[in-house]
Each structure stands twice: as C-alpha cells, then as structure tokens.
Specification:
With 206 residues, this protein is an alpha/beta fold. The chain contains six helices and 13 strands. The strands form three sheets. It has an eight-stranded mixed beta sheet. Strand 12 and strand 13 form a beta hairpin.
Length: 206
C-alpha cells in the first residue's frame, strides 16, 4: 500500500487517481502511524514552501517523514514535495526545509520571452540512470507548474534536467528517496510509467 501524505497542500486527488488507474492500493492520510506502516510514501503538493512546512510541523508530520526515510521506505516527492525535501527556499527566507537532501530552491530568473510561473510541457534531459525513468524514451515531455526550481548540491543525485530561463534540476534520486519537480500524474503515458516504476520499486520488483 502506498500512502499519500495529506497535509493541506493540494494536488493530492490527481495523484491518487493516477495510482488507482494503475491498479495500486492507495491511502490518502495525514495519520502519522498509518504513514509509517505504508510500503511506499508520496509527498505531493502545490503552494508556498513556508506554508507547507508550517502545515507539516503543525500536524507533527516532520518526524514521521524523517522516520519513513530513515527506515528505507521508498519515498517520492512531487512538485512542492520535491522542494520541501531540500534545505531552504528563496520563496520563504529563514524557513528550514526537511533537509533530507542537500541543495536549495531558487526563484526562476526572469527572461523577456518566458512567463513565470513556468507552466506547460518541457522535455527532459535524462542522466545518471534514474530508476524512475526505466523504460522511458530519451527526452520525454512532462508537465510543469512552478515559479521556483531546484539547484541540487550533489550533481550525482540529479536524474533529469530541463531548461527554462536556467538549468533546472527536474528529478533526483538518492537511495530510497525519489523526487520530481514536474507532475507525473499530469504527464500522460510518460508520467504514468514513472508512477508505475515507483510502485514497482515499492513492491521490490525494480
């Protein structure tokens, strides 16, 4: 069973529906004990970094996430869920992220011909043999909605990048922790394949 962490940050129902389409057993919950018992955990989310961290703190979910990651449960962050895994964000100065992965979230620099937020389809440059991308063709197109982007401290954890005003670290993997800035649940067959790959990892089949 895969637990979807419900912490009031939106974008949860679409992830739930995508996993159900794949035939996966999904539990949408903010209950820490149920999250800790899950075979895999997903942290989705849209919205502001500081508000999301406050929601996690208030609902006492930060130690739950830390415990889940420490015991090697497969963990996937999506969009804001990716950003929260890192140390800090320019969106919310002074607010600490989860710090599970090293790096920071920066504001996408303005460019005359580009709109911010970055909203729409962009191709990915795959690298470092990401497990989420197994069986996916090179340069796949995926769907983004964001104004802030990841700059990872360790190049080796970056499994996909894209360019939008700057180079964006679009997907990372480290041990049992996976994350993507884009929305796999809104990225057609490519995104569903990524979610299927994560579910296979959860089951120990990949």
């Amino acid at each position: 069973m895969i637990a979807l962490i419900d912490y009031g940050a939106g974008n949860i129902k679409s992830v739930e529906k995508a996993l159900q389409m794949l035939g996966e057993e999904v539990l949408l919950t903010g209950d820490g004990e149920k999250i800790k018992k899950a075979d895999g955990v997903i942290l989705p989310g849209v919205g502001a970094f500081g508000h999301a961290m406050e929601n996690l703190r208030r609902r006492e979910l930060i130690p739950v996430i830390e415990e889940v990651v420490k015991k090697q449960t497969p963990f996937l962050g999506i969009c804001l869920g990716l950003q929260l895994l890192f140390e800090r964000s320019e969106e919310s100065p002074g607010v600490k992220g989860l710090g599970i992965l090293k790096g920071e979230i920066r504001k996408i620099p303005p460019k005359a011909e580009l709109k911010i937020p970055h909203m729409g389809w962009n191709s990915l440059e795959l690298k470092n043999d990401g497990r989420l991308f197994r069986g996916i063709e090179p340069k796949p197109y995926v769907y983004f909605v964001h104004s802030y982007y990841l700059k990872a401290a360790d190049e080796k954890i970056v499994k996909a990048t894209t360019d939008y005003s700057t180079r964006i670290d679009a997907s990372v993997e480290q041990g049992n922790v996976f994350a993507c800035q884009f929305h796999p649940e809104k990225s057609s067959d490519t995104g569903l394949k990524m979610l299927k790959n994560f579910a296979d990892i959860v089951r120990g089949e990949a």
